[in-house]
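Sharing in case it's useful to others searching the archive later.

Someone asked me privately for the predicted structure of KCD14 protein, so I'm posting the question and my answer publicly. Question first, with the sequence:
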Amino acid sequence: MSISSDHKPLGKQVTGSLHTLSPIVELNVGGEMYTTTLSTLKKHPGSKLAEMFTGQPKLRTDSEGRFFIDRPGIYFKYILEYLRSNRVPTQCIQDVYKEALFYDIEPLIKQLEDSPQIFGELVARKQFLARVPNYSENIELMIRIARAEAVASRRSSVIVCVVRTEEDAARCQDALNSLDTDKKSVVKFGPWKAAPSISDLLDCIQMDVEAKGYKISFQPHVAEKGFRFKSHDFFYKFLFTWW
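And my answer, the predicted structure tokens:
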């Protein structure tokens, strides 16, 4: 197939190598339409995005002949803006970061990781949570317990025990045994070796459960018979609201 002089955009009728085709490319990214150049898409040769448009066409086309990428199209404009002008986005940082990871655009990934939003999440918060044993598993356990208790109820609650040190864990053991005897489920977090406090971890728990779409709040768990003195300081009730 020969190249037309008016450089028609790449389309579904194209079957040859991308090296021999028009430099103008039309894209359908998750329903959002973009027009750019082949050189822009291939600006970073080691990226997944560049690989999509190197050699034989690797993407399907839509009904209008535009190359289709099944990703959130609204954020692709920030990817294009960076490829065109090296301008790092200042909006939707978390979402653009996910797209940069998908397209494997290493320079953009590194610059986004230096932003306060990504730095705080990756370096500060996640590094802290990595030091809290079984954190992710405990989040899932909380959700399972709450869902099991949600039958014919507007709210369900989960008791959480948060202990920062081994000494705190020892102080809470009698209370944990008492709750176990009463057949009450308790999800225990900690201990950990890091600067953040119990209140910081509680905020993280709420943040990560809410990120999964649940409406949640927490309050100190009222001490009951069998609790040791002050051991209730480490017990909290997380309330899931279903409707």
